[in-house]
Amino acid sequence: MRWFWGTLLALVLAGLWFVVDRAPTTAGTRPDPLTGTDAPSASTAVGTPSATPNAEAPAEPPQPEIDLLGESGARVVPLEPTAFARPLIIPDLRNPTDVVRRLDDRTLELDGRFRVTGNGSANDPYRISWELLTSSSAFIDPAQTATTPPPWVRLLDGTYIELSGYYSTALRVPIATNLLLTLNRWDGCCIGLPPTPFDAIDVTMRTPLPLEGAHLIRFGTFRGRLSVSVFEIGGFLLGLYRLEDTTFETK
Q1: Per-residue exposure over 112-132, b if at least 16 CB sit within 10 Å of its own CB, e if not
Q2: pLDDT confidence of residue 91
Q3: Which candidate, 157, 164, 251, 156, places its Cα nearest to that of 211?
Q4: How far apart are CA 126 and CA 223, in angstroms?
Q5: For residue 178, is pLDDT > 90?
Q6: Given pLDDT bands bounded at 50, 70 and 90, which one contains residue 44?
Q7: CATH code for 96-250?
Q8: What pLDDT, on the 0 to 100 scale, is given for residue 192?
Q9: Which residues pair with 104 in a beta bridge?
Q10: pLDDT at position 26, please?
Q11: 35 near 46, Cβ under 8 Å?
Q12: ∠ at Cα 38 (35, 41), nearest 5°?
């Protein structure tokens, strides 16, 4: 009988020891079975604030050194202009007579770089170059309200000129009264360089020009009265040169 009660007492004491050993030592912690130290319980690790009042808050991520929006008063440096930005147009308002230097009885030098022969009449027109006409591109831009051609181009307004180039029509026709004279070959679709207002002239023939049987590459010399007038719509330049009372000289 004593053996029975002694065994029962030993079992009760062993059970009490087991319960006390497994109980948490502090609130929110439990002993680590591997190290024996207290580890935070699940309730403390997830969703339960720390009980330590002086615990440091986690450090904030570093802020960028450059304030792109300028909200902190930092100076935002604008981007440098690209190569595609339009250059500022500075008009040349000199009188046409200020850019003329006569070399001999039949030769003029305009602006110290363009040589012109002839006297500007219907019988002896000025023989000019495309380089002279295309030089207007540096002085005309309606988007900048710059619509004054340079003086050496204004000098030719109303005079007769002679010029060679490629010519074409808007439609395939056997004869034509209106042509487009261009510096570069262009077929109106795919071949060649599309013209600009500076390297193209709207031509009105004195008499209709036969085109039937002509080669697709049409090149020739024309004489006519040059008109220099800026034609623009909505800040876009659509035309600059017209040739009137025109005759076809050579192929």
Answers
A1: eebebebebeeeebbbbebeb
A2: 92
A3: 251
A4: 9
A5: yes
A6: very low
A7: 2.40.50
A8: 81
A9: 107
A10: 47
A11: no
A12: 120
